[in-house]
Amino acid sequence: MNVGVIGTGAIGTDHIRRLTGRVAGARVTAVFDVDTARAATVAAMAGAASHREADDVIDDPAVEAVLVASPGDTHADLVLACIAAGKPVLCEKPLASTSDAALKVVEAEVTYGRRLVQVGFMRRYDGGYLGVKTALAAGRIGEPLLVHCVHRNVSVPPSFTGDMSLTDSLVHEVDACRWLLDQEIVAATVVDVPHSPLALPQLRDPRLVLLETERGIVIDAEVFVNARYGYDVRCEVVGTTGTVALDAPSTGVVALEGGRVQALPMDWEARFGQAYVDELQAWVDAASQGTADGPSAWDGYAATAVAEAAVASRGARTKVDLAERPGLYSGESLP
Amino acid sequence: MNVGVIGTGAIGTDHIRRLTGRVAGARVTAVFDVDTARAATVAAMAGAASHREADDVIDDPAVEAVLVASPGDTHADLVLACIAAGKPVLCEKPLASTSDAALKVVEAEVTYGRRLVQVGFMRRYDGGYLGVKTALAAGRIGEPLLVHCVHRNVSVPPSFTGDMSLTDSLVHEVDACRWLLDQEIVAATVVDVPHSPLALPQLRDPRLVLLETERGIVIDAEVFVNARYGYDVRCEVVGTTGTVALDAPSTGVVALEGGRVQALPMDWEARFGQAYVDELQAWVDAASQGTADGPSAWDGYAATAVAEAAVASRGARTKVDLAERPGLYSGESLP
Amino acid sequence: MNVGVIGTGAIGTDHIRRLTGRVAGARVTAVFDVDTARAATVAAMAGAASHREADDVIDDPAVEAVLVASPGDTHADLVLACIAAGKPVLCEKPLASTSDAALKVVEAEVTYGRRLVQVGFMRRYDGGYLGVKTALAAGRIGEPLLVHCVHRNVSVPPSFTGDMSLTDSLVHEVDACRWLLDQEIVAATVVDVPHSPLALPQLRDPRLVLLETERGIVIDAEVFVNARYGYDVRCEVVGTTGTVALDAPSTGVVALEGGRVQALPMDWEARFGQAYVDELQAWVDAASQGTADGPSAWDGYAATAVAEAAVASRGARTKVDLAERPGLYSGESLP
Amino acid sequence: MNVGVIGTGAIGTDHIRRLTGRVAGARVTAVFDVDTARAATVAAMAGAASHREADDVIDDPAVEAVLVASPGDTHADLVLACIAAGKPVLCEKPLASTSDAALKVVEAEVTYGRRLVQVGFMRRYDGGYLGVKTALAAGRIGEPLLVHCVHRNVSVPPSFTGDMSLTDSLVHEVDACRWLLDQEIVAATVVDVPHSPLALPQLRDPRLVLLETERGIVIDAEVFVNARYGYDVRCEVVGTTGTVALDAPSTGVVALEGGRVQALPMDWEARFGQAYVDELQAWVDAASQGTADGPSAWDGYAATAVAEAAVASRGARTKVDLAERPGLYSGESLP
Ligand SMILES: [Mg+2]
Ligand SMILES: [Mg+2]
Ligand SMILES: [Mg+2]
Ligand SMILES: [Mg+2]
After folding, report:
1. Within A70-170, where are the H helices?
2. Contact C247 A253 (CB under 8 A)
3. Strand, coil or helix: C134
4. d(Cα B166, Cα B305) in Å, to the nearest integer?
5. Is B200 on the interface with D (CB under 8 A)?
6. In what helix (H) or strand (E) does residue A152 lie, and over which residues does it extend?
7. In Å, how far is D23's CA from the nearest CA of chain B?
8. Do C252 and A246 touch (CB under 8 A)?
9. Residue A263, pLDDT score
10. Do A258 and D261 touch (CB under 8 A)?
11. Which CATH number applies to B2-121+280-287: 1.10.260.40, 3.40.50.300, 3.40.50.720, 3.30.1490.20?
12. Which of B146, C107, D282, D326 lies 20 to 30 Å (CA to CA) from residue A184?
């Protein structure tokens, strides 16, 4: 399948490398980036054409499917263009900058009548999360009641500001919990906590967020993007008869002076690198059938809507005002 | 040191067995229980006298220190009588049924002028908690920002009702966090969560509670007294540069069909049995010097006050209205 | 790259599925199996031709590289034919049934003058083993002195008999240790141990084997192919200043009655599935350049020679009589 | 019970501190050490008399039981004197410098007709080992087939020389395995391995030892007394249907840059401190009844005999030539 890639920054280039060298059935044939020099270099590396405009990638008759990895505020329009062109698209999260914009994508896809959009929530492809999902589905812990989440990064670049720990980081917990629990999140509360003096003040880092699902399950999620010591993602679902927790992959236990050390990854590439490959493989498999699988436009919309409610909450429980879910998205998960 | 024990139920008898067979420098010479037959049996076992009234134990001239393990609503008056008699006393938690009653104990002890009271918060003597305390004191994680607590019991007896998961269970987290962080808890919020159908409805089990310290650190604590699968106590303190977590003792890892199993204790006796012994040893050591060490009457008062705020909160952040701490309690911890 | 596959049993079919659906840059275009019906079915599934003879696959002008997954006693001749045809070949272990036969492959490849052969020791591609390798290379444990290995299977089929726990199972430890330590194994001793009554008597299961490297490092390896409880592979290298141990991937920790359970895989597919994919990708990448990477014919020869010494040892230390290593194999590892 | 202590070096003083401050029912009333100044200081600390000769402690009519913590070559004679005096004695390991001398103690006790001797194998009182014992007794792993042991110290003092890693360290594994498996060890082989350049050459450190029980179970034991990184004791028993492994206690898991660190103890005091207390309590409990419990003179003899065989083995399997076990020792364990 011929893939066009829009956005050849770090993430886009990583995706191109995976599509080219780790995924079956895909070839990158066209790219675009506002940084035309960068685009040309990456295009040469991949043996692809470098186009003048993002839309040229989508309109390129040789391109059968599109991967969108440009800045977040360009996502919605590009995905709409893909839908208009009838081409499957993998859109990095977020699907859109606002839930309104995301909802427009949902509506366009519903009008189109078939799924074309997959959103880049790669955790659904991680072995650890899949193990939790399997345990839940098998009823091993009875009925879920609570979820405890932790999402810690070593640090963030200066461009990571404002409420991005909600709109860019927490959304992973939002999607993972919606998927694990098979239900919508209907309310969000950001709890006021002390902020690390090692983080920029405007980040108000860490954040502690309470999320509430349609059946009342409460999720507490710590998002700490300057945790310094490592990239650490945890998730424990507490049920009526037991609990199940995400188990992180590791690459060896070293016993050295002081104790037994289990190495932690320092970034998401180390932690979720394989999940990205598997995400792309699943996308290529579905897209080459003209459709999409995995996290949908609806999932992208819901995650954005929950993050918006969290941003708005400022300490008070805030309802998530979701649209009614179209039948197109009633398939594999969520009733 | 001759010890008198008031209350020879399960906990009192366990304490007598430890004082007699596991602790240096103590002898149980007098006991009382409202169940006189039970008291007589236990007295015979310990080689102690069985008295007619609780006060007779306190007034017994041979008794040098008193252990109070009777029902919680009798604690405050008994401890007051011990102070009046100038005898060191170990009082099982809670120190009193209400913070007002607990404050009276504090005031009496302040008037007496020297510490005589130790409250039975045994976790301060647990090797795991001591390890966390040591790591914090050594600055290994920088400045504490957040604490995540879990407190799960297999199940509770029918007598465990109403808000006891706050007044009897959560108080352990309250005391442990005050001690670990060296600061008061000034607000409490019970978050509404779904309740397990396997627990009695009036318990509203599990509970999720947010606690806030005087310096703004937020503690989220899950208390789940019908968790079914085991007795599981966890605590992770998140700091600016790392985290430290309680590591549970274990008694062997068995690899059996399905996986590697790390045995969990099924009750607090299995988990904290050694902590109880060490608590008693510390008490005997201090009491034989005519004073008290470890958790103080003030600690008992503060824990009760926080639990009261939690009970009152019903979903809204509720301030803990603490008295001013007397100088008597300004010693080893808390400024 | 067009791949021909010889042998479409379970392992061959798994490899075809991976080449087709999980690996970049490969297509299966020809297959052969003695079971012609099976071969036809698999060929249809993969969109490949089904040939009458194994040699027809090798000789097929469209086939650019060959994967050999037929029974072990056919391997050496097929690999020799691939070398004669100048085609890169991935040969499932063992490279040959005897070290003499394996040495003939080595000699043929040396005569050919360039590496064409990769042997299927997939553990070299496992994230856990790679972590151990990295720690060793970084000198984190000082100089290696001892290695403790465990290799346990749930059970084996009736066709797994005689000394196969040495020739088919232990060879994985042999290759992994040679690779981790960068040195040859020069002696082997099978220690007499009690055998499980739950295994067929002729398997003498478990086995305990002592291996000795050219620099004197001793490896103790337990191979237990009827361990019942799970598929469990462990490896700890003990150095002068620390140790490093393989850390198994997991898919979730479940807390259930009795304890905290870390799921164990039940077979090698679950444990090393990703390693197989990465092995194939590495092979395709090198083969499409007309050469081979990873475990070489020499590695296959050495592993077979060590297993032979172990079989011959019957309790007495037995030297491994290795040929001199040709310069062709002096590249990336082993001096 | 009045205890006399012979030997007030580091271990003797630790025991006195425990007897005085952590154990119920004991008082140290007399001490002896060849270093009379040291003895006087310790005696003053404990409120005990300081005697001129070791025998004076044993003969002191106020002394009801004796603890022997003097150098190993004095143990046998002192224990014989205790038996002659009819006084219970706790003898630090080894019971004697040679198995012949140890056998004389056994014979003297048999002649006396009742157990008076307990040998200081404290691991039998460790919660971790007790957990393994419980799992084995419950049949959780089927029938034991193999045992893997590791015994690592950070370093040893210059006085630790020659074969002491066999006679002083390995004996703990010998006793623990005899006790866990309920059977004698009948053969020992020291395997030649590379020695750490960081240890004194004459120590030939680490050692790898194979032990064989009367029913053929094989134990491989690594003893490494200059392992540098920590004090690390491990034991895994492999059975027909599962395995059980010792789980080390910990005092907190710290997540810091680089990974999750589980603290390791740096010496046996940190690892087995509680086991020593429990050992002493068990001894006091039995001695105050005029008898002994726990590891017997026979156990001390057997451990010494196995260590002797190991020392003699020099790479060849060497039989342990055990005397016939007297009926006195047929009680709780070993048939
Ligand atoms: Mg993503
Ligand atoms: Mg208590
Ligand atoms: Mg293989
Ligand atoms: Mg000892």
Report:
1. 75-85, 99-112, 127-137, 164
2. yes
3. helix
4. 11
5. no
6. strand A144-152
7. 5
8. yes
9. 84
10. yes
11. 3.40.50.720
12. B146
D239 strand-pairing partners? D144
- Residues in C closer than 8 angstroms to B259, CB to CB, are 230, 261-264
Chain C residue with minimal CA distance to A279?
A: C22
Q: Which residues of A touch D264 (CB under 8 A)?
A: 255, 258-260
Nearest residue, CB atoms, A262 vs list C130, C247, C285: C247
Nearest residue to C15 (alpha-carbon basis) of C292, C196, C315, C272: C272
Cα distance between residue A150 and residue A112, in whole Å: 38
Q: Is C159 on the interface with B (CB under 8 A)?
A: no
Of D222, D228, D241, nearest to C242 by CB-CB distance is D228
Contact flag C128-A251 (C-beta cutoff 8 Å): yes
Structure tokens at A312: 């708005």
pLDDT tens digits, residue range D120-151? Answer: 999 999 999 999 999 999 999 999 999 999 99
Q: Which pair of structure tokens corresponds to residue D79?
A: 């224990």
The pair of structure tokens assigned to D194 is: 């590379």
Q: Which of A64-68, B261-265, C144-148, C209-213 has the lowest mean pLDDT?
A: B261-265
Chain B, 208 to 267: residues with Cβ < 8 Å from chain D are 241-247, 249-257, 262-263
Q: Is C328 exposed, middle or buried (0-12, 13-18, 19+ CB in 10 A)?
A: middle
Which strand ranges, in their side-by-side order, compose the sheet holding A27-32? A49-50, A27-32, A2-6, A65-68, A89-91, A117-119
With H, G, I as helix, E, B as strand and everything else as coil, classify residue A276. helix
Q: Which strands form C49-50's sheet, in the order they lie side by side?
A: C49-50, C27-32, C2-6, C65-68, C89-91, C117-119
The ligand with the least distance to the CA atom of C171 is 3
- Can you spell out the DSSP letters for C259-281? EEEEE--SSHHHHHHHHHHHHHH
Whole-number Å distance, alpha carbon A70 to ligand 1 midpoint, is 13
CA of B121 relative to ligand 2 center, distance in Å: 5
Name the pairing type of β-strands B218-224 and B207-213. Answer: antiparallel
Separation CA C35–CA B106 (nearest Å): 88
Instruction: For residues D6 and D75, give the distance between their C-alpha atoms in angstroms, rounded to a whole number.
Output: 10
For residue D245, which residues of chain B lie inside 8 Å, CB to CB? 252-255
Number of helices followed by number of strands (H, E) in chain D: 10, 15
The alpha carbon of residue A227 is apart from the nearest alpha carbon of chain C, in Å, by: 23
- Topology (CATH level 3) of domain A124-267+297-324: Dihydrodipicolinate Reductase; domain 2 (3.30.360)
What spacing in Å lies between the alpha carbon of B91 and ligand 2's midpoint? 9
Q: Nearest ligand to the C-alpha of residue B294?
A: 2
What pLDDT digit, counting tens, does each position of A227-284 carry?
999 999 999 999 999 999 997 766 667 888 778 888 888 899 989 999 999 999 999 9
C-alpha–C-alpha distance, residues D180 and D128, integer Å: 12
Helices (H) then strands (E): counts for chain A = 10, 15
ipTM computed for the complex = 0.94
Segment C227-240, tens digit of pLDDT: 999 999 999 999 99
Q: What confidence tens digit (pLDDT) does each residue in C292-323 have? A: 999 999 999 999 999 999 999 988 999 999 99
Gap from C221 CA to chain A (nearest CA, Å): 19
3-state per-residue secondary structure call for B33-65:
CCCHHHHHHHHHHHCCEECCCHHHHHHCCCCCE
What is the secondary structure of D33-70 as a DSSP string?
Answer: -SSHHHHHHHHHHHT-EE-SSHHHHHH-TT--EEEE-S
Write down the architecture of domain A2-122+280-287 according to CATH. Answer: 3-Layer(aba) Sandwich (3.40)
Yes or no, beta carbons of D240 and C228 under 8 Å apart? yes
Locate the domains of chain A by residue range. 2-122+280-287, 124-267+297-324
CATH 3.40.50.2000 fits B123-271+296-329, yes or no: no
Instruction: Report the separation in Å between the CA atom of D92 and the middle of ligand 4, taken as the mean of its atom positions.
Output: 6
